[in-house]
């Protein structure tokens, strides 16, 4: 905590900049030279025949900086050091290099896991296991003629055969995918994509677009029965900002750009999009469009559907786009809504014009402790009703509060530890909050300094009415930091027989409490029935508020020792949890999308006719199923 | 012969479970009471086990929660708008309803009951036996999810005993749905209210405010986990000791919080309460014969205290396995309709849901039946009724023992101590029921003293009284026997061994008797197979792919079984004869029962029939209900009187030429020919 406190100057513009640093701080090296160049509308980098290497954060060889069998950067991970204490490595995150003294105990207590029982992933990919590529020589000839960069390397192919679902990571660690892409191509601009799609149509191939690879819906998995050559179309090298329009506050960006690069480059001109999904370090703009993404700060900036002004998409039928870049139009159903959420089944999004905002002057974190989850939800509901939600407001349940607590770094001074003790005493003893029931809301305010302070007061006043107590900036900030590192935790868990995943839904306000309670209970029960020996970690948080409801996010993990087929058990439980969500009036997905993982519920979700409408669009746009990833429908 | 797959899955008793079921041991709770002070027992430290999610609140707080609930407020506003009244007035009305309805459980009253009931129960009963494992299961269930107790209903003792039991075992006392009639009793009504009874009007279908308030009251208590909710699926005390067909209203109310996912799950606990001798046995017999039931009154209760000197034997209470509603509903219900309407709006359940509620109701009743304890006397009564006017004592013992074996084969739960010899068991039954039968010169005869003198009518009446009382005990066997017995009857009726034909007769009988016995809806074939299986098991029949035929030694079983159900076959024949001969085109339900009664009474006086049981108003109503269901009789509501429409039926016995038509005013008129054919079949088939 000391370390955090040291950097936090309360509400200075410095802190706003610092936050941006956090997010974009993962970038190594100096700003790339291509940056400036990219700010002029140049038709294509590939012009002149030399496909200049792109300078985005993610290189063509992803594995050079990213883990091949887990989440995130190679140099960032949780480990147990020689003293047996948990530690986070690397320098990319604020947690980097810090010791987490209570974490080990938490793991042992929560999962019944023990450091002595370890499973290890294989050390590297065994290239001999990789399924041989189905090669279409004529296509390769044509492809070579286009000078578009491609690869048939086994690693390149495997690392584009998956997203980050539990079973996919498990396969990487211990098995092999049955079907993977046969060729990987790296277009560097819209025209490249047009050529690739034309070739695919000509040779009847299957294209699976690949952006940041952060899918958690099995959307990137290759259909096993696909007999055609599968081309993985990696958009990562299409990552330029083509232009910025300061008058209309829009920017036209190539769809392969990943979130952190987009924000970093815009910030150089004093702008941001404000779109911050939890995966923003790795996920791409095109991916956001294709899955109907939602960002943490949607209360100010909106979700992707609110941000997008114009989309250019290459389909087998041709290019689809609008004739103008306007805030709204009445021209029949919005064609953007066929594209957003199409999950790569219709074509490749190549360029997006997105709304931008001036960088906020001021940012401030905050947190509120509530005596129980019910009061917390009631408070969030009231905040939503008064439409005064801060940039972000999240409510974590007790289990997640304790989880966050376990990730507190070692305190540097006796003074801070004394202060912590005092705070704890005040809340639990003086105010009578039960530490095993209380829950915490984390807040993030953004905007003009004065307005932020005003806004802050308004929100805290409401919280007080629901029994909430302000619990400081640090707690709030740590809550958001966790969002970025939590994905790393799964890799640690995997080493110790703990598997887990997150999933989300959206639900009307009046059902939030029932849904949270029932889904968690269902998970506990299913685990018991399936022979899971230690009670699972089953927890939730309300992550977004809307006028008519909320987005709820669940974490679920368990110790699988003694179970022969943990992934199958895991999937059955997740499926049961999803059925519970639907039975409680929740949606199939708020922002993760359907992919292949949740297809079976589509009919129930949008009715037969609804499904038919989507199918007929697919049939028109892509009659030969070139975009054959089999998602959604 | 197709069979709904879902129903089969739902009705999951497999053949093996039928007979090899292991049941819990019983403990006598009165034993302890006879050894220690009742006063200390009543004053004991009572810290009941409660629901884990309980938000504690007082009975009056519940009322105001209900009144302020969105559900009730919505209906109040609706009504105010429709009637142009101020919402306050309607709110006032709702408050009155709540005050009339609401319980006000108090520990003091509970202790008072604990004390007095200890005294009374010790007087009345020899033993009150409870399966302790069931109580332990219940204890766990109460902590886990809201619990609904579903006891069988044979006597007013039922709910008193159950509350007494829960008090004894330190479990949360239930709130009990009681008929509003109890409120007519001075003091007692209020006492019951304070012991946890809440009162519902007998019929309130049309009263939206009442329905809303009542439903919300029950649901609020359930959601909060305030206390286990207890009500009787049968709706009223069964006067015949046969399980009555279930009522669905309250059951669907208690299931709704789960459908709307306001609770994670709800436990339904079937409870079987079996009496060796029913307190109200003679009252019931009078009532069945048309002597009206005395109104519940305190003075009546005081008058009834003379029964305290009588002995009513043993009570067995079997608390069944709590059934998870979630498990029952899994994969069966589409909750989408509930997701598309705000949860506080009153919503008519979909057909799906209605069917599900009905299935659950039947399932629960079948579970009650399964765990009913049968005393040796029940067997004696069954044998005796087939051997009127008298049976040799030794023969009776022999047949009773034989029947015991058969009952056990069929999965009946007989409480017959291992070391007790048959003679003693039969004797003790006879002693306990000396008002029904007695031993005279080595023969057992019905106890119809004083019948010899008196007018013919009086003799018939008195005899009917004893026979109905006796049949009350035999009736306890019927639901265990009904499937094999209907197969046996079908075999006799069909005069063919072809399986298909036997099945079609079976299924006909099952339809005709659908209100008389408890059948899980829609699984006729499965019932048939189960009947055949049980008959095969006791070597009464042999089956091949195509045929079913009785074995040589099986004829005893087959004829015993069909004789057991003969009173129903004959009774229904008499009732149909009455309908086709005596009635006009249309009649009211009120006219029907006395009409049949007189008709049968005259036949009995003339000696033209021996079927005393046809006098039972229960059978008469069931027969009529079955006819309505089968479409032979049409029910039509005209203002309040229910008219049952029938047209010109003539019957010549034995050859019948029925011609039946529905009255002109019915919309769904069957063609006359079809109808005639139908009734002809009905009657012909019933002549066995």
TrEMBL record, chain A:
SUPFAM superfamilies: FAD-binding/transporter-associated domain-like (SSF56176), FAD-linked oxidases, C-terminal domain (SSF55103). It holds the Pfam family FAD_binding_4. Residues 177-359 form the FAD-binding PCMH-type domain. Substrate binds at residue 490. Its EC number is 2.5.1.26. This is Alkylglycerone-phosphate synthase. It comes from Phasianus colchicus (Common pheasant). One of its GO terms (molecular function) is alkylglycerone-phosphate synthase activity. It is found in: Peroxisome membrane. Residues 46-57 have a biased composition (Low complexity). PROSITE patterns: FAD_PCMH. Pathway: Glycerolipid metabolism; ether lipid biosynthesis; Lipid metabolism. It catalyses: 1-hexadecanoylglycerone 3-phosphate + a long-chain fatty acid = a 1-acylglycerone 3-phosphate + hexadecanoate; a long chain fatty alcohol + a 1-acylglycerone 3-phosphate = a 1-O-alkylglycerone 3-phosphate + a long-chain fatty acid + H(+); hexadecan-1-ol + 1-hexadecanoylglycerone 3-phosphate = 1-O-hexadecylglycerone 3-phosphate + hexadecanoate + H(+). Keywords: Acetylation, FAD, Flavoprotein, Lipid biosynthesis, Lipid metabolism, Membrane, Peroxisome, Phosphoprotein, Transferase, Transit peptide. Residues 27-59 are annotated as: Disordered. The keyword Flavoprotein applies. The active site is at 553 (proton donor/acceptor). Homodimer. GO terms for cellular component: peroxisomal membrane. Catalyzes the exchange of an acyl for a long-chain alkyl group and the formation of the ether bond in the biosynthesis of ether phospholipids. The gene is AGPS. It comes from the Eukaryota. FAD binds at residues 209-215, 291-294, 343-349. The keyword Transferase applies.
From TrEMBL, chain B:
GO terms for molecular function: glycerol-3-phosphate O-acyltransferase activity; glycerone-phosphate O-acyltransferase activity. It is found in: Peroxisome membrane. Residues 147-276 form the Phospholipid/glycerol acyltransferase domain. Pathway: Membrane lipid metabolism; glycerophospholipid metabolism; Lipid metabolism; Phospholipid metabolism. It is a peripheral membrane protein. It catalyses: dihydroxyacetone phosphate + hexadecanoyl-CoA = 1-hexadecanoylglycerone 3-phosphate + CoA; dihydroxyacetone phosphate + an acyl-CoA = a 1-acylglycerone 3-phosphate + CoA. Pfam families: Acyltransferase, GPAT_C. Its EC number is 2.3.1.42. Keywords: Acetylation, Acyltransferase, Membrane, Peroxisome, Phosphoprotein, Transferase. GO terms for cellular component: mitochondrial membrane; peroxisomal membrane. InterPro entries: DHAPAT, GPAT/DHAPAT, GPAT/DHAPAT_C, GPAT/DHAPAT_LPLAT, Plipid/glycerol_acylTrfase. Transmembrane segments: none annotated. The keyword Ribosomal protein does not apply. It is an enzyme of class 2 (transferase). The keyword Phosphoprotein applies. One of its GO terms (biological process) is phospholipid biosynthetic process. Part of a heterotrimeric complex composed of GNPAT, AGPS and a modified form of GNPAT. Dihydroxyacetonephosphate acyltransferase catalyzing the first step in the biosynthesis of plasmalogens, a subset of phospholipids that differ from other glycerolipids by having an alkyl chain attached through a vinyl ether linkage at the sn-1 position of the glycerol backbone, and which unique physical properties have an impact on various aspects of cell signaling and membrane biology. Belongs to the GPAT/DAPAT family. This is Dihydroxyacetone phosphate acyltransferase. It comes from Phasianus colchicus. The lineage of its organism: Eukaryota, Metazoa, Chordata, Craniata, Vertebrata.
